[in-house]
Design goal:
- The chain has 1080 residues and is of the alpha+beta class.
- The chain has seven domains: 194 residues, Alpha-Beta Complex (Rna Polymerase Beta Subunit, Chain: C,domain 2), CATH 3.90.1100.10; 157 residues, Dna-directed Rna Polymerase Ii 140kd Polypeptide, Chain: B, domain 3 (Alpha-Beta Complex), CATH 3.90.1110; 82 residues, Hypothetical Protein Ta0175, Chain: A, domain 2 (Alpha-Beta Complex), CATH 3.90.1070; 227 residues, DNA-directed RNA polymerase, subunit 2, domain 6 (Dna-directed Rna Polymerase Ii 140kd Polypeptide, Chain: B, Domain 6, Beta Barrel); 88 residues, RNA polymerase II, Rpb2 subunit, wall domain (OB fold (Dihydrolipoamide Acetyltransferase, E2P)), CATH 2.40.50; 41 residues, RNA polymerase alpha subunit dimerisation domain (DCoH-like); 56 residues, RNA polymerase alpha subunit dimerisation domain (DCoH-like, Alpha-Beta Complex), CATH 3.90.1800.
- The chain has 29 helices and 52 strands.
- The protein has a six-stranded mixed beta barrel with strand order 32-46-33-44-43-50. Strands 1, 2, 3, 4 and 5 form a five-stranded antiparallel beta sheet that branches.
- α2 packs parallel to α11.
- The longest helix has 28 residues.
- It is an enzyme of class 2 (transferase).
- Pfam families: RNA_pol_Rpb2_1, RNA_pol_Rpb2_2, RNA_pol_Rpb2_3, RNA_pol_Rpb2_4, RNA_pol_Rpb2_5, RNA_pol_Rpb2_6, RNA_pol_Rpb2_7.
- It comes from Enterospora canceri.
């Protein structure tokens, strides 16, 4: 049943659905709300002038060339280094000569389009079946397996990573320097701010950006319209009586007894406009900037009540009734995807656009004498480039710097890495935390219990990012905004009394419970358990959005309902629907043929729960573990893993760190990038020529299409000691296997040569001799220094571009034009066969370099005459405890015998009750085909011809060749370039730098007393210099005479860096002197 549901889930859902759904929601809904919230631009000079936005829409991607606009596809954008973007069109209404004019389809800018989204020319790729969109992808020269979810900016593929943030619009209890305080990070369509309530000097204060200093909380509450002290007392509750006493004394001391007095008092702490009334201006700031998430239609009473709730939470926490919130708890997190990030960026850019437009028209309207008739549309068109450039720059650089929202984030976007198909897929599910990576704190890094089924427990990097960079689990979804109005109507129908209809005295009555919707107080109810049950029934019937959640907090005596975006959810089977559909396999199989996963959700068989609602549920791991108290059942055991971690066969038999290592190395494995690899011109692309589907496969490998585009091959592996070159995880390779194409990789590199525009505006051209363009042709072998292309300037000077680096063949030469000037792309192809030093890895985190390549005639062979492709050391098993690798080896061997792929799905045992287990079945298959049940064979030495005394564990294991190759790392030099400042050899392989003799190496040589070697390495072979030193005063001087004593200097050999240091000290009025001793 479980595998059926997982297959059904991915039959209609994309592997990167979170990004695409978020972007589609932004394009189809959020962008309209942003424009609606900022739809009018007025002039301060001419009050009759206005410009109003009537609508906005995004078209399909186009590119303008030779004044003609035409459709553009992703592959063309990659090749021509242009941006895959579409026009943003708006309908506007404005005044011209006091007449109203409406213009349709006015160009506002260009919006980068996410691949496979609703605005992409490629069809959305929902599901794992390659169907009707294959022909369209083929015409567009696009990979049929590409999932999309990324952008193409100037030819570079960029992905906006999922950003982890603290929950918005929720009261969070935190501990700071002054003790416990409550904070709310508020966000609405128009405004965003943060409000804190702190306890200082036994008085509660409010902190906000609009106040120049902390202001008493009760003053703010009175300014918001709750004037009576008794009313404030009732909103706070009887528990706050002791701690609130001095806060009342504060307002008596300031003599604030009315709303007007409170507003005047607050006006001293805010910045108002020059001609603005203090009371009205302060009230406007309170309405807009303090708790903007709390809606106030008539007055600010709702904000005052919310402030009282913040104070009450602080008091209860100080008394020990409540605990501070766990920031690492997933229920207190929200996850921002591409849609949310672009929404914030577009909102800030759009407001800036309107501000600049207003400035430009005010400047024109302020001139009394105008030579031409004023038309606002002219100035509107002049500003449109700013929106396109801002969006492109942010996605290209990854920097989200928004002054309006005080946001300064870097590393939001990353270049989509394509070592293999699974590498690109792994980047799409990555979650980035903004916690400082250098801090050695265990809290944010540890695997929180609330992340079960939401985050992968294995897929996280090693090193400083460990635990901070996470990956989504297989079935995890991230919610988008749903209609809170519909949810509120349902709550009202279920008997919730709204705040406006509730008396303050009823708030904290024992029988009453507060009901929050998206963190804002909505009303009161009396039977929360029954209410939550009825609410869930309505949601399961499909009348509410599937991502709406409801949960009951008994300690706070509150019921929380969430409809906001960024919540992480996962599907679970509802146990209450235990009927023939789940009980009878045949009925279920017949029903699933005609149903989708969405049908099961709307039918009430499956529902999505977020982390908070899971706390009200009891989830059974398997059907056999179901009890009377269970409310839900897991969809699949393997669903706790990510798309990358699920590539590990039998991961539940491995030591946990080994699975984590494989998640990192699986992303470094070289395989097929895409089906259109020959059409791509990436800066660097690795492609394995002959890949194979793993013999030990799993359910997820079929769903994530790893079986169709693998990154490795099945190697025959003998576990034995051989030649001594296999120590420390090194492996021995079969030379004839390499000659047959084993793990052969092609490396493609692209060189871009621009034809620049000269001073006179004319372009460089490709030089021709005898009518033949001087460009290297495809198939040509080029070595270091060979000519690739000759360019001629308008003044007829010729410049030749030459090849740098290793010898390679020219694969393709492309002459094209991008957004600016034309350029030439030359794609080089280099074949890499495995050699000593190259890195290999199995799928169990056991990596090793090639220690030796042996001729097949010297390799051992078994009774069938089969020699292994790889020999690995048996000492790699005991300490690593990778039992999964042993199971993969015997399962793969049995698969070769039976002709059926072995099932290596995590936590699965497909044997029937009372029958053989999966391992026993595998061993039986081996015995039935004449092999030992243990997977061991008799081997004969290829050198002596004698049989080995012991049996050898032998069978196929899926091995990966990693991107770390010795050809990319080997480096040596005798002479080469030197740095201009220090005259020492440059650093780094790319700059043909020297090999650094560092401090520790120097210490070793000093310890050995090797002074001559030290002198040679650190001076003679580095930056030896003949310095002129005065023999009398020991100062470095000119070669003619000493400027201090007039003596003729002597020549002293020293490092140039030492001489430079002495001269810099002399520039700082510090006089270093060198003591000279006459040699014997």
């Amino acid at each position: 049943m479980k595998n059926d549901l997982v297959e059904l889930f991915f039959r209609e859902k994309s592997l990167v659905r979170q990004h695409i759904e978020s972007y589609d929601y932004f394009i189809e809904k959020e962008i309209h709300e942003i424009v609606q919230a900022n739809n009018t631009v007025v002039s301060d000079i001419d009050h009759c002038f206005y410009l109003r936005y009537l609508g906005i829409r995004i078209e399909f991607p186009t590119f303008v060339e030779n004044m003609v606009e035409q459709s553009v596809y992703p592959q063309e954008c990659r090749t021509r280094d242009i941006t895959y973007s579409a026009n943003i069109l708006v309908d506007i209404e404005y005044t011209k000569n006091k007449q109203k004019i409406i213009k349709k389809n006015v160009h506002l800018g260009k919006m980068p389009i996410m691949l496979r989204s609703s605005r992409c020319h490629l069809e959305s790729y929902a599901g794992t079946k390659v169907g009707g969109n294959r022909l369209k992808d083929h015409k567009a020269q696009e990979c049929v397996y590409d999932n999309g979810g990324y952008f193409i900016i100037r030819g570079v593929e960029k992905v906006i990573q999922i950003q982890e943030q603290l929950s918005r619009n929720r009261i969070i209890l935190e501990t700071g320097k002054g003790g416990i305080y409550s904070s709310v990070t508020s966000a609405s369509i128009k405004h965003k701010s943060k409000t804190n309530v702190i306890y200082k000097n036994e008085v509660f204060y409010v902190q906000s950006n609009i106040f120049t200093e902390d202001v008493p909380a009760l003053v703010v509450i009175k300014a918001m319209g709750v004037e009576k002290c008794r009313e404030i007392y009732e909103y706070l509750g009887i528990e706050c009586a002791e701690l609130i006493e001095y806060s009342y004394d504060e307002i008596y001391f300031r003599r604030i007894f009315s709303k007007s007095a409170a507003l005047l008092e607050l006006s001293k702490f805010v910045k108002l406009k020059a001609d603005e009334d203090p009371e009205k201006g302060t009230e406007r700031l309170l309405r807009d900037k303090i708790l903007p998430n709390v809606e106030c239609s008539v007055n600010l009473r709702n904000k005052a009540i919310y402030l009282c709730l913040m104070i009450r939470k602080c008091v209860l926490a100080k008394k020990g009734h409540l605990q501070t919130d766990d920031k690492d708890y997933l229920g207190n997190k929200r996850f921002e995807l591409a849609g949310q990030m672009l929404s914030i960026l577009f909102e800030d850019t759009f407001k800036k656009f309107n501000f600049e437009f207003k400035k430009s028209i005010d400047k024109i309207l302020s001139k009394r004498i105008r030579t031409s008739e004023f038309d606002a549309l002219t100035f509107f068109n002049l500003q449109t480039g700013s929106i396109s450039s801002t969006l492109n720059r942010a996605i290209s650089s990854g920097n989200w710097n928004l002054k309006r929202f005080r946001m300064e984030r870097s590393g939001v976007t990353h270049v989509l890495t394509r070592y293999s198909y699974i590498t690109a897929l792994g980047m799409m599910t990555k979650i980035n935390s903004h916690f400082e990576k250098t801090r050695k704190v265990s809290g944010p890094r540890s695997l929180h219990t609330s992340s079960w089924g939401m985050f992968c427990p294995a897929d996280t990097p090693e090193g400083e990012s460990c635990g901070l960079v996470k990956n989504l689990a297989l079935l995890a979804e991230i919610s988008t905004d749903s209609d809170s109005g519909a949810t509120e109507r349902v709550l009202a129908e279920l008997g919730v009394t709204e705040v406006a209809d509730s008396s303050p005295s009823a708030f904290y009555a024992p029988s009453n419970f507060l009901v929050y919707v998206n963190g804002s107080l909505f009303g009161l109810c009396q039977n929360p358990v029954k209410l939550a049950q009825k609410f869930r029934e309505i949601r399961r019937s499909g009348l509410l959005d599937k991502f709406v959640s409801i949960f009951f907090n008994k300690k706070e005596q509150a019921l929380y309902v969430s409809t906001d975006n960024g919540r992480i959810c996962r599907p679970l089977v509802i146990v209450a629907k235990e009927n023939a559909f789940w009980a009878d396999r045949q009925i279920r199989e017949n029903a699933l043929k005609n149903r989708t996963f969405t049908d099961l959700v709307t039918g009430g068989f499956i529902e999505y729960l977020d982390v908070n609602e899971e706390n009200d549920s009891l989830v059974a791991l398997s059907k056999g573990a179901l009890g009377p108290a269970h409310t839900h059942l897991e969809v699949a055991d393997c669903a706790i893993l990510s798309l990358v971690a699920a590539t590990v066969p039998f991961p539940h038999h491995n030591q946990s760190p080994r699975n984590t290592y494989q998640c990192a190395m699986g992303k470094q494995a070289v395989g097929h990038v895409a089906t259109n690899a020959k059409k791509r011109s990436d800066l660097l692309m690795l492609k394995m020529n002959y890949t194979q589907r793993p013999l030990a496969s799993s359910l997820v490998l079929s769903l994530n299409r790893y079986n169709l585009i693998p990154a490795g091959l099945n190697a025959m592996v003998a576990v034995m000691n051989y030649t001594g070159y296999d120590i420390e995880d090194a492996v021995v390779l079969n030379k004839q296997a390499i000659d047959r194409g084993f793990a052969r990789v092609e490396v493609y590199r692209t060189l871009k040569i621009e034809l620049n525009r000269c001073e006179n505006g004319r372009l460089e051209e490709i030089h021709s001799e005898g009518g033949v363009e001087q460009v290297v042709g495809p198939g040509t072998l080029v070595r270091e220094g060979d000519a690739l292309l000759s360019k001629v300037r308008p003044d007829r000077t010729v410049r030749t571009v030459r090849h740098k680096g290793r010898a390679a063949y020219v694969d393709r030469v492309i002459l094209t034009r991008g957004e600016d000037d034309p350029f030439v792309k030359i794609v080089f192809r280099e074949t890499r066969v495995p050699e000593i030093g190259d890195k290999f890895s199995s799928r169990h985190g056991q990596k090793g370099v090639v220690g030796l390549v042996v001729q097949q005639c010297d390799m051992p062979f078994n009774e069938q005459g089969i020699s292994p492709d790889i020999v690995m050391n048996p000492h790699g098993f005991p300490s690593r405890m990778t039992v999964g690798k042993i199971l993969e080896q015997i399962s793969g061997k049995a698969a070769c015998c039976t002709g059926n792929y072995a099932d290596a799905t995590a936590f699965e045992d497909n044997s029937a009750p009372g029958a053989e287990t999966q391992v026993e079945k595998t061993c039986s298959d081996l015995v039935a085909h004449g092999f030992s049940y243990s997977g061991k064979d008799v081997f004969t030495s290829g050198v002596t011809g004698e049989q080995f005394e012991s049996f050898v564990f032998f069978g196929p294991i899926f091995y990966q060749r990693l991107k770390h190759m010795v050809a990319d790392k080997i480096h040596c030099r005798a002479r080469g370039p030197r740095a201009v400042l220090t005259r020492q050899p440059t650093e780094g392989r790319q700059k043909d730098g020297g090999l650094r003799l560092g401090e520790m190496e120097r210490d070793c040589l000093i310890g050995y007393g090797a002074s001559a070697l030290l002198s040679e390495r650190l001076m003679h072979c580095s930056d030896e210099f003949d310095a002129h030193v005065c023999a009398k005063c020991g100062v470095i001087c000119y070669k003619v005479r000493c400027s201090l004593c007039g003596m003729k200097p002597v020549v002293v050999k020293m490092p140039y860096a030492c001489k430079l240091l002495f001269q810099e000290l002399m520039a700082m009025n510090i006089l270093p002197k060198i003591g000279l001793v006459t040699g014997k």
